[in-house]
């Protein structure tokens, strides 16, 4: 050790405690023309900084200089330490052979403590390369020395690395034990970057154990820690993408991966990280249904991994590439062989993804009619159905269902689907946020479709109804979990409301709003993140959908559930003590017709469009043929409940000729209608009338309704602020909200009603202990919903139904503000006479003037639920 080298040595631990400060001190040290040994340390520190947070080419220049200076200082241990750091950088640059050679020299040159640190870093490189046995062996050799010397920092790093390798091999319990031991050591150090990495690793462990809310919370915490240090977070992005995809948020994962790739390219960062991000992007694109993007990203990832000699990673990328090609419609014997080879190699690695590859090989073989080959591959995949995390078990049950279908066993198909969906039910209920519950149902779409196909072919209409209900609107079956006192979330909602109100005011005054919009988006991300951290508290209820109970409560009415199997609509008509099936048309044709009708209603909301009325009515007749078919003569004379699939939620059902003069209501599922039908109204039945700002008519119906109800609570002006409105709505019998509605297709839970202090969003409604028994939303687009997951709907209406609301009246299209007033007054007249929302809305439509604008306004509104 030479004079002056002691302060320089302090820079090495500082680079992982405070990277920016370490970089500044190293640059300052080099300005003083130090001796070779401290100069070597300074260049090594700068190399580490550039390697992890900057330009890898610059990193290699610094590290080679550090190596040469160490050799001049004639310090074997110093040279060994630099050789290890250089080896890591070379591997990250894709120069695997050179990197491993540098490690060989480092292991040979180092002794004792230094050699143990070199072995740890080589273990890290083995992990990067996907060579897990070698990684575990080097950690095994390094740990005793590090522990004996009481080197807490490097011992904690080695334990964290070993835990990460265990996770890659699916050994979650071993990983948890190592993470726990490492965390105890980190608490005794000031290594802030390492601590952030430990939090990130715990997030990965939580995800591997199936706890998505905890994983998201820990990854967000890690990101906050990294942000304070000013360091990029490429590996964190890879891990967050994995968690987001498991939560059904594939488009969000793809956006994050692509943004990280762009940043990495701008900085000239690590080639290894780019390959991993490309793989994450490919997986996300595949899950989002974007096969061309998935193919492009996966193909580049395969090439990079191959060039980097990372066989474990390359094999996982090949799996995604094959899956994307199959999703794009390719089927061939070669793909069967490729998928089988990938499955075999993944199994040899001990990868949890091996069953997924076997399932893929089986699916392709089935599509080609190769039943024997399919059975062989599916049998291997099916072994995972009883062990492992939920996705692995669902893969196993999907394979088992396909085996049963190939064998002609309807009972076997339904049993496998029941068991697989049960796994997903349990997993779904660990999620507190309704957004996550809705999106994650996409993982059960294949099982639900297989069960519906089997029921359609062999089971009869009642069985098809049961399975259609089994996976429809499940997010509405239980209320979202609400944190009793989350001060940060409440503060975020308040700040969001203030910023959104200021942005709206600026827009109306013609002032620029980019800064306000950026802050609004930031707050949205914060609110969304905090709600996703909430764990579910409601246990899964295993009670089956009760068809006899449904038929009994329908009385003289009918419930029409539209099931979609293999792209065609099947009409399930419930009533008169039985369930009958009628053929509908292609779903794609119905969706196109519904979009045409919606466009027509938007035009009819304005005077002067009368000539379009016959066209819209003709489209309504075509929709009826596609969606109701031969069921029309059997609808009877009583009330009708329509249960459409998510893709058809915007159909204006009152426009269909057979439904135009009926008592008509809409429900996301038959089970949801049953729950609404059996919901008891509150005892006091108080009415709340809310008038928001900026309405063209000023909410002119509200004063007249206030006179009619007498004791109703009226909130307008400064009284119509979100906290006061929520307080009054909680537990009310009837609520009428005259306020501008905004639907957010990109983020449906930020759909809003405009109050005097800003938007009242879906997240606000979810904080109610009990939403009003009946709610009337008199503005445009308040019934618009986003179809997500398997067949879930997110928006204002569906947020209210699981919270105690039994009935909602809202519009699914833009409406004429002036024409709404007589409709609303007539609607409340019916309610005052003791009618239901559906009965009152039917009578209100008939009481409107006969002109086109009023007709279109009446068709745009629908009654949801059963109150």
Automatic annotation (TrEMBL):
<dbReference type="Pfam" id="PF12770">
    <property type="entry name" value="CHAT"/>
</dbReference>
<dbReference type="InterPro" id="IPR011990">
    <property type="entry name" value="TPR-like_helical_dom_sf"/>
</dbReference>
<protein>
    <submittedName>
        <fullName>CHAT domain-containing protein</fullName>
    </submittedName>
</protein>
<dbReference type="InterPro" id="IPR019734">
    <property type="entry name" value="TPR_rpt"/>
</dbReference>
<feature type="domain" description="CHAT">
    <location>
        <begin position="623"/>
        <end position="865"/>
    </location>
</feature>
<dbReference type="InterPro" id="IPR024983">
    <property type="entry name" value="CHAT_dom"/>
</dbReference>
